[in-house]
Design goal:
The complex is a heterodimer of chains A (96) and B (310).
Chain A: H1 8-30, H2 40-60, H3 68-93
Helix pairs in contact in A: 1-2
Chain B: H1 21-56, H2 58-66, H3 70-96, H4 99-129, H5 144-154, H6 161-171, H7 178-194, H8 207-214, H9 217-225, H10 227-267, H11 277-301
Helix pairs in contact in B: 1-2, 1-10, 1-11, 2-10, 3-4, 3-11, 4-10, 6-7, 9-10, 10-11
Classes of the chains: A mainly alpha (96), B mainly alpha (310).
Protein backbone atom coordinates (compact mmCIF):
# COMPACT_ATOMS: atom_id res chain seq x y z
CA UNK A 1 0.00 0.00 0.00
CA UNK A 2 1.53 3.28 -1.08
CA UNK A 3 -0.46 5.47 1.28
CA UNK A 4 1.66 7.50 3.66
CA UNK A 5 0.64 7.23 7.31
CA UNK A 6 1.29 10.40 9.27
CA UNK A 7 2.67 9.57 12.70
CA UNK A 8 1.07 10.66 15.97
CA UNK A 9 3.92 12.94 17.12
CA UNK A 10 3.42 14.96 13.90
CA UNK A 11 -0.29 15.30 14.59
CA UNK A 12 0.35 16.48 18.15
CA UNK A 13 3.00 18.93 16.98
CA UNK A 14 0.60 20.48 14.45
CA UNK A 15 -2.06 20.61 17.18
CA UNK A 16 0.40 22.55 19.34
CA UNK A 17 1.10 24.97 16.50
CA UNK A 18 -2.63 25.57 16.02
CA UNK A 19 -3.19 26.28 19.71
CA UNK A 20 -0.20 28.64 19.83
CA UNK A 21 -1.59 30.39 16.73
CA UNK A 22 -4.95 30.87 18.44
CA UNK A 23 -3.34 32.35 21.53
CA UNK A 24 -1.20 34.67 19.39
CA UNK A 25 -4.22 35.87 17.41
CA UNK A 26 -5.98 36.73 20.64
CA UNK A 27 -2.99 38.52 22.16
CA UNK A 28 -2.23 40.54 19.03
CA UNK A 29 -5.88 41.59 18.79
CA UNK A 30 -5.57 43.34 22.14
CA UNK A 31 -2.50 45.32 21.08
CA UNK A 32 -2.91 48.44 18.99
CA UNK A 33 -0.89 47.65 15.90
CA UNK A 34 -2.77 50.13 13.76
CA UNK A 35 -0.29 52.75 14.91
CA UNK A 36 2.22 51.18 12.55
CA UNK A 37 -0.16 51.39 9.62
CA UNK A 38 -3.93 51.18 9.25
CA UNK A 39 -5.05 47.62 8.91
CA UNK A 40 -2.00 46.14 10.62
CA UNK A 41 -4.15 44.34 13.17
CA UNK A 42 -6.23 42.78 10.42
CA UNK A 43 -3.15 41.81 8.45
CA UNK A 44 -1.60 40.06 11.43
CA UNK A 45 -4.86 38.27 12.26
CA UNK A 46 -5.29 37.07 8.67
CA UNK A 47 -1.65 35.97 8.40
CA UNK A 48 -1.96 33.84 11.51
CA UNK A 49 -5.31 32.43 10.32
CA UNK A 50 -3.80 31.61 6.93
CA UNK A 51 -0.83 29.88 8.58
CA UNK A 52 -3.17 27.82 10.76
CA UNK A 53 -5.30 26.86 7.77
CA UNK A 54 -2.16 25.82 5.86
CA UNK A 55 -1.11 23.55 8.74
CA UNK A 56 -4.55 21.90 8.76
CA UNK A 57 -4.53 21.45 4.97
CA UNK A 58 -0.99 20.08 4.67
CA UNK A 59 -0.91 17.71 7.64
CA UNK A 60 -4.41 17.04 8.97
CA UNK A 61 -5.85 16.79 5.46
CA UNK A 62 -2.74 14.94 4.21
CA UNK A 63 -2.20 17.24 1.22
CA UNK A 64 1.55 17.24 1.90
CA UNK A 65 1.51 13.50 1.20
CA UNK A 66 -0.93 13.60 -1.68
CA UNK A 67 -0.57 13.90 -5.43
CA UNK A 68 0.04 17.21 -7.22
CA UNK A 69 -3.46 16.98 -8.68
CA UNK A 70 -5.00 17.32 -5.22
CA UNK A 71 -2.62 20.21 -4.51
CA UNK A 72 -3.94 21.86 -7.67
CA UNK A 73 -7.53 21.60 -6.42
CA UNK A 74 -6.55 23.24 -3.12
CA UNK A 75 -4.76 26.13 -4.79
CA UNK A 76 -7.52 26.68 -7.34
CA UNK A 77 -10.09 27.26 -4.56
CA UNK A 78 -8.03 30.18 -3.32
CA UNK A 79 -7.65 31.47 -6.88
CA UNK A 80 -11.41 31.65 -7.47
CA UNK A 81 -11.94 33.28 -4.10
CA UNK A 82 -9.40 35.96 -4.97
CA UNK A 83 -11.19 36.58 -8.27
CA UNK A 84 -14.46 37.03 -6.36
CA UNK A 85 -12.93 39.48 -3.89
CA UNK A 86 -10.81 41.42 -6.39
CA UNK A 87 -13.47 42.02 -9.00
CA UNK A 88 -16.28 42.80 -6.57
CA UNK A 89 -14.17 45.21 -4.54
CA UNK A 90 -12.85 46.90 -7.68
CA UNK A 91 -16.45 47.66 -8.58
CA UNK A 92 -17.30 49.20 -5.22
CA UNK A 93 -14.01 51.00 -4.76
CA UNK A 94 -14.31 52.73 -8.12
CA UNK A 95 -17.82 54.00 -7.55
CA UNK A 96 -18.30 57.70 -7.11
CA UNK B 1 -7.59 -8.41 -14.04
CA UNK B 2 -4.21 -6.88 -13.14
CA UNK B 3 -1.41 -9.21 -14.15
CA UNK B 4 0.76 -8.40 -11.11
CA UNK B 5 -1.98 -9.16 -8.57
CA UNK B 6 -1.19 -11.95 -6.13
CA UNK B 7 -4.82 -12.47 -5.21
CA UNK B 8 -7.34 -14.33 -7.31
CA UNK B 9 -10.08 -11.95 -6.14
CA UNK B 10 -9.74 -8.18 -5.71
CA UNK B 11 -10.70 -6.33 -2.53
CA UNK B 12 -14.49 -6.45 -2.02
CA UNK B 13 -14.55 -2.65 -1.73
CA UNK B 14 -13.06 -2.11 -5.21
CA UNK B 15 -15.63 -0.66 -7.60
CA UNK B 16 -15.59 -2.01 -11.16
CA UNK B 17 -14.61 1.28 -12.82
CA UNK B 18 -11.27 1.42 -11.01
CA UNK B 19 -8.11 -0.56 -11.80
CA UNK B 20 -6.99 -0.82 -8.19
CA UNK B 21 -7.66 0.45 -4.66
CA UNK B 22 -5.02 3.16 -4.95
CA UNK B 23 -6.75 4.74 -7.93
CA UNK B 24 -10.12 4.45 -6.21
CA UNK B 25 -8.76 6.12 -3.11
CA UNK B 26 -7.29 8.99 -5.13
CA UNK B 27 -10.53 9.47 -7.10
CA UNK B 28 -12.55 9.55 -3.88
CA UNK B 29 -10.26 12.16 -2.37
CA UNK B 30 -10.39 14.30 -5.53
CA UNK B 31 -14.19 14.08 -5.51
CA UNK B 32 -14.31 15.35 -1.94
CA UNK B 33 -11.82 18.11 -2.74
CA UNK B 34 -13.97 19.21 -5.68
CA UNK B 35 -16.85 19.52 -3.23
CA UNK B 36 -14.68 21.46 -0.76
CA UNK B 37 -13.60 23.88 -3.50
CA UNK B 38 -17.29 24.57 -4.08
CA UNK B 39 -17.76 25.03 -0.33
CA UNK B 40 -14.97 27.60 -0.31
CA UNK B 41 -16.97 29.61 -2.84
CA UNK B 42 -20.19 28.99 -0.87
CA UNK B 43 -18.71 30.58 2.24
CA UNK B 44 -16.76 32.92 0.00
CA UNK B 45 -19.94 34.78 -0.89
CA UNK B 46 -20.55 35.62 2.75
CA UNK B 47 -16.91 36.51 3.29
CA UNK B 48 -17.30 38.87 0.34
CA UNK B 49 -20.28 40.55 2.01
CA UNK B 50 -18.24 40.86 5.18
CA UNK B 51 -15.29 42.32 3.30
CA UNK B 52 -17.44 44.91 1.57
CA UNK B 53 -19.47 46.15 4.53
CA UNK B 54 -16.57 46.10 6.92
CA UNK B 55 -14.57 48.28 4.56
CA UNK B 56 -17.53 50.68 4.39
CA UNK B 57 -18.43 50.79 8.09
CA UNK B 58 -15.39 49.70 10.10
CA UNK B 59 -16.43 51.38 13.34
CA UNK B 60 -19.97 50.03 13.26
CA UNK B 61 -18.50 46.58 12.75
CA UNK B 62 -16.04 47.08 15.59
CA UNK B 63 -18.89 48.20 17.85
CA UNK B 64 -20.91 45.10 17.02
CA UNK B 65 -17.88 42.85 17.42
CA UNK B 66 -17.18 44.25 20.88
CA UNK B 67 -20.48 42.85 22.06
CA UNK B 68 -19.68 39.31 21.07
CA UNK B 69 -18.36 37.10 23.85
CA UNK B 70 -14.73 36.68 22.88
CA UNK B 71 -14.10 34.05 25.56
CA UNK B 72 -16.80 31.81 24.16
CA UNK B 73 -15.46 32.40 20.67
CA UNK B 74 -11.93 31.47 21.74
CA UNK B 75 -13.17 28.39 23.60
CA UNK B 76 -15.04 27.31 20.48
CA UNK B 77 -11.89 27.76 18.41
CA UNK B 78 -9.91 25.52 20.74
CA UNK B 79 -12.76 22.98 20.86
CA UNK B 80 -12.77 22.72 17.07
CA UNK B 81 -9.00 22.41 16.88
CA UNK B 82 -9.14 19.54 19.39
CA UNK B 83 -11.92 17.92 17.34
CA UNK B 84 -9.71 18.19 14.25
CA UNK B 85 -6.95 16.39 16.16
CA UNK B 86 -9.30 13.59 17.23
CA UNK B 87 -10.57 13.32 13.65
CA UNK B 88 -7.01 13.04 12.30
CA UNK B 89 -6.32 10.34 14.88
CA UNK B 90 -9.49 8.50 13.85
CA UNK B 91 -8.14 8.41 10.28
CA UNK B 92 -4.77 7.26 11.65
CA UNK B 93 -6.35 4.31 13.45
CA UNK B 94 -8.43 3.40 10.41
CA UNK B 95 -5.17 3.20 8.45
CA UNK B 96 -3.86 0.78 11.06
CA UNK B 97 -7.08 -1.21 11.14
CA UNK B 98 -7.71 -0.56 14.83
CA UNK B 99 -11.52 -0.64 14.95
CA UNK B 100 -11.96 0.18 18.64
CA UNK B 101 -9.62 3.19 18.57
CA UNK B 102 -11.20 4.39 15.32
CA UNK B 103 -14.68 4.28 16.87
CA UNK B 104 -13.43 5.90 20.07
CA UNK B 105 -11.93 8.84 18.24
CA UNK B 106 -15.04 9.31 16.08
CA UNK B 107 -17.08 9.49 19.29
CA UNK B 108 -14.63 12.04 20.74
CA UNK B 109 -14.87 14.13 17.57
CA UNK B 110 -18.65 14.11 17.84
CA UNK B 111 -18.49 15.12 21.49
CA UNK B 112 -16.31 18.14 20.73
CA UNK B 113 -18.52 19.04 17.77
CA UNK B 114 -21.54 18.97 20.06
CA UNK B 115 -19.77 21.11 22.65
CA UNK B 116 -19.14 23.65 19.90
CA UNK B 117 -22.82 23.73 18.97
CA UNK B 118 -23.81 24.00 22.64
CA UNK B 119 -21.61 27.05 23.16
CA UNK B 120 -23.02 28.59 19.97
CA UNK B 121 -26.55 28.03 21.27
CA UNK B 122 -25.64 29.84 24.49
CA UNK B 123 -24.14 32.70 22.47
CA UNK B 124 -27.19 33.02 20.22
CA UNK B 125 -29.49 33.01 23.21
CA UNK B 126 -27.41 35.75 24.82
CA UNK B 127 -27.69 37.86 21.68
CA UNK B 128 -31.46 37.44 21.65
CA UNK B 129 -31.65 38.47 25.29
CA UNK B 130 -29.92 41.72 24.40
CA UNK B 131 -31.98 42.33 21.27
CA UNK B 132 -28.88 42.00 19.11
CA UNK B 133 -30.82 40.28 16.39
CA UNK B 134 -30.49 40.60 12.62
CA UNK B 135 -34.16 41.34 11.97
CA UNK B 136 -37.45 41.58 13.84
CA UNK B 137 -38.44 38.24 15.33
CA UNK B 138 -41.65 37.75 17.31
CA UNK B 139 -41.93 41.44 18.00
CA UNK B 140 -38.37 41.76 19.23
CA UNK B 141 -36.52 44.57 17.54
CA UNK B 142 -32.88 45.40 17.17
CA UNK B 143 -32.16 48.16 19.64
CA UNK B 144 -28.59 49.23 19.59
CA UNK B 145 -28.68 52.55 21.35
CA UNK B 146 -31.28 51.59 23.92
CA UNK B 147 -29.23 48.53 24.88
CA UNK B 148 -26.16 50.69 25.23
CA UNK B 149 -27.95 53.02 27.64
CA UNK B 150 -29.11 50.03 29.71
CA UNK B 151 -25.53 48.83 29.93
CA UNK B 152 -24.31 52.28 30.94
CA UNK B 153 -26.95 52.28 33.67
CA UNK B 154 -25.88 48.83 34.85
CA UNK B 155 -22.32 50.00 35.03
CA UNK B 156 -23.55 52.62 37.50
CA UNK B 157 -23.04 55.58 35.22
CA UNK B 158 -25.17 58.65 35.44
CA UNK B 159 -27.53 58.92 32.48
CA UNK B 160 -29.58 61.95 31.41
CA UNK B 161 -33.09 62.29 32.86
CA UNK B 162 -34.82 62.21 29.50
CA UNK B 163 -33.05 58.96 28.61
CA UNK B 164 -34.00 57.52 32.01
CA UNK B 165 -37.65 58.39 31.37
CA UNK B 166 -37.54 56.83 27.91
CA UNK B 167 -35.98 53.62 29.24
CA UNK B 168 -38.58 53.32 32.00
CA UNK B 169 -41.36 53.82 29.54
CA UNK B 170 -40.14 50.98 27.37
CA UNK B 171 -39.07 48.65 30.14
CA UNK B 172 -42.34 46.75 30.17
CA UNK B 173 -42.31 46.30 26.43
CA UNK B 174 -40.73 43.05 25.37
CA UNK B 175 -42.76 42.83 22.19
CA UNK B 176 -43.79 45.89 20.22
CA UNK B 177 -47.19 46.22 18.62
CA UNK B 178 -47.63 48.29 15.49
CA UNK B 179 -48.88 51.44 17.23
CA UNK B 180 -46.01 51.26 19.64
CA UNK B 181 -43.34 50.77 17.00
CA UNK B 182 -43.80 54.18 15.44
CA UNK B 183 -43.69 55.86 18.82
CA UNK B 184 -40.68 53.80 19.85
CA UNK B 185 -38.85 54.65 16.66
CA UNK B 186 -39.65 58.31 17.04
CA UNK B 187 -38.50 58.26 20.64
CA UNK B 188 -35.39 56.32 19.80
CA UNK B 189 -34.54 58.69 16.99
CA UNK B 190 -34.95 61.64 19.28
CA UNK B 191 -32.63 60.02 21.79
CA UNK B 192 -30.04 59.19 19.16
CA UNK B 193 -29.99 62.74 17.85
CA UNK B 194 -29.65 64.43 21.18
CA UNK B 195 -27.60 62.12 23.33
CA UNK B 196 -24.32 60.64 22.25
CA UNK B 197 -23.54 57.20 23.58
CA UNK B 198 -20.45 55.26 24.40
CA UNK B 199 -20.41 52.75 21.58
CA UNK B 200 -17.70 50.38 22.68
CA UNK B 201 -18.17 47.89 25.46
CA UNK B 202 -15.42 49.39 27.52
CA UNK B 203 -17.64 52.43 27.76
CA UNK B 204 -14.75 54.83 27.68
CA UNK B 205 -14.89 58.45 26.61
CA UNK B 206 -12.82 59.09 23.59
CA UNK B 207 -15.22 57.15 21.39
CA UNK B 208 -15.72 60.32 19.40
CA UNK B 209 -11.97 60.49 18.89
CA UNK B 210 -11.94 56.90 17.73
CA UNK B 211 -14.65 57.67 15.22
CA UNK B 212 -12.76 60.75 14.05
CA UNK B 213 -9.62 58.72 13.66
CA UNK B 214 -10.78 55.43 12.23
CA UNK B 215 -14.18 55.78 10.62
CA UNK B 216 -14.67 56.21 6.89
CA UNK B 217 -16.07 59.50 5.66
CA UNK B 218 -19.56 58.04 5.14
CA UNK B 219 -19.54 56.53 8.59
CA UNK B 220 -18.46 59.73 10.28
CA UNK B 221 -21.28 61.59 8.67
CA UNK B 222 -23.77 58.95 9.72
CA UNK B 223 -22.52 58.77 13.27
CA UNK B 224 -22.76 62.46 13.91
CA UNK B 225 -25.74 63.40 11.77
CA UNK B 226 -27.98 60.33 11.73
CA UNK B 227 -26.99 57.92 14.51
CA UNK B 228 -30.12 55.81 14.15
CA UNK B 229 -28.97 54.85 10.69
CA UNK B 230 -25.48 54.26 12.06
CA UNK B 231 -27.09 51.89 14.53
CA UNK B 232 -28.54 50.07 11.54
CA UNK B 233 -25.00 49.48 10.30
CA UNK B 234 -24.29 47.72 13.56
CA UNK B 235 -27.36 45.63 12.84
CA UNK B 236 -25.75 44.81 9.49
CA UNK B 237 -22.79 43.38 11.40
CA UNK B 238 -25.18 41.14 13.31
CA UNK B 239 -26.81 40.05 10.06
CA UNK B 240 -23.44 38.92 8.79
CA UNK B 241 -22.52 37.38 12.15
CA UNK B 242 -25.68 35.27 12.28
CA UNK B 243 -25.52 34.38 8.58
CA UNK B 244 -21.88 33.24 8.70
CA UNK B 245 -21.91 31.46 12.04
CA UNK B 246 -25.37 30.06 11.25
CA UNK B 247 -24.22 28.58 7.95
CA UNK B 248 -21.14 27.27 9.72
CA UNK B 249 -23.27 25.72 12.49
CA UNK B 250 -25.45 24.08 9.84
CA UNK B 251 -22.30 22.53 8.38
CA UNK B 252 -21.38 21.31 11.86
CA UNK B 253 -24.77 19.65 12.26
CA UNK B 254 -24.37 17.92 8.89
CA UNK B 255 -20.86 16.95 9.99
CA UNK B 256 -22.26 15.33 13.12
CA UNK B 257 -24.69 13.39 10.93
CA UNK B 258 -21.81 12.19 8.77
CA UNK B 259 -19.90 11.18 11.90
CA UNK B 260 -22.88 9.20 13.17
CA UNK B 261 -23.02 7.27 9.89
CA UNK B 262 -19.26 6.80 9.96
CA UNK B 263 -19.39 5.49 13.53
CA UNK B 264 -22.07 3.00 12.57
CA UNK B 265 -20.18 1.64 9.56
CA UNK B 266 -16.85 1.65 11.43
CA UNK B 267 -18.37 -0.30 14.31
CA UNK B 268 -19.59 -2.90 11.84
CA UNK B 269 -15.96 -3.42 10.82
CA UNK B 270 -16.15 -2.05 7.31
CA UNK B 271 -12.79 -0.23 7.43
CA UNK B 272 -9.26 -1.57 7.47
CA UNK B 273 -5.76 -0.77 6.14
CA UNK B 274 -6.77 -1.60 2.54
CA UNK B 275 -10.04 0.33 2.55
CA UNK B 276 -10.82 3.36 4.72
CA UNK B 277 -11.65 6.06 2.16
CA UNK B 278 -14.92 7.12 3.83
CA UNK B 279 -13.03 7.85 7.05
CA UNK B 280 -10.44 9.86 5.16
CA UNK B 281 -12.92 11.94 3.18
CA UNK B 282 -15.22 12.50 6.17
CA UNK B 283 -12.08 13.80 7.82
CA UNK B 284 -11.53 16.19 4.91
CA UNK B 285 -15.04 17.61 5.40
CA UNK B 286 -14.53 18.01 9.15
CA UNK B 287 -11.17 19.76 8.73
CA UNK B 288 -12.72 22.13 6.20
CA UNK B 289 -15.42 23.16 8.68
CA UNK B 290 -12.63 23.76 11.21
CA UNK B 291 -10.73 25.94 8.72
CA UNK B 292 -13.81 28.11 8.11
CA UNK B 293 -14.07 28.75 11.84
CA UNK B 294 -10.32 29.52 12.02
CA UNK B 295 -11.08 32.47 9.72
CA UNK B 296 -14.43 33.39 11.27
CA UNK B 297 -13.06 33.80 14.80
CA UNK B 298 -10.60 36.68 14.20
CA UNK B 299 -12.79 38.35 11.59
CA UNK B 300 -15.95 38.41 13.71
CA UNK B 301 -14.81 38.41 17.33
CA UNK B 302 -11.56 40.33 17.39
CA UNK B 303 -12.42 43.60 15.66
CA UNK B 304 -11.60 46.77 17.47
CA UNK B 305 -10.47 45.01 20.62
CA UNK B 306 -7.35 47.11 20.58
CA UNK B 307 -9.23 50.37 21.07
CA UNK B 308 -8.25 51.70 24.44
CA UNK B 309 -5.06 49.64 24.38
CA UNK B 310 -1.69 51.26 23.97
Amino acid sequence: MSEHIVQKPTYFAIFGVLIVGTVLTYIFALVDLDRIFTGANTLVALTIAFAKATCVVLWFMHVKYSSRLIGLFVVSSILWLIILFAFTMSDYLTRR
Amino acid sequence: MSAHSEHAVHHPGLQHQFDNMEQQREAGAIGMWAFLVQEVMFFGGLFMAYLLYRSKYPMAFAAGSNHLDVVMGAVNTVVLIVSSLTMALAVYYSQLGNRKALCGFIVLTMIFGSVFLGVKAIEYNDKFQHNLIPFEIGGLQFKWNEMQWHEAKNRGEKIPAEVEAYLKQHEAHGAADSADVAHTEEGAHHLDKNYKLPIYSNGKDGDKELIEKHATATEKELYFKDPTIWGKKVQLFYWIYFAMTGLHALHMIVGLGIMAWLLWTAWKGRYGPEYHSPVEISGLYWHFVDIVWIFLFPLLYLLGRHFGAH
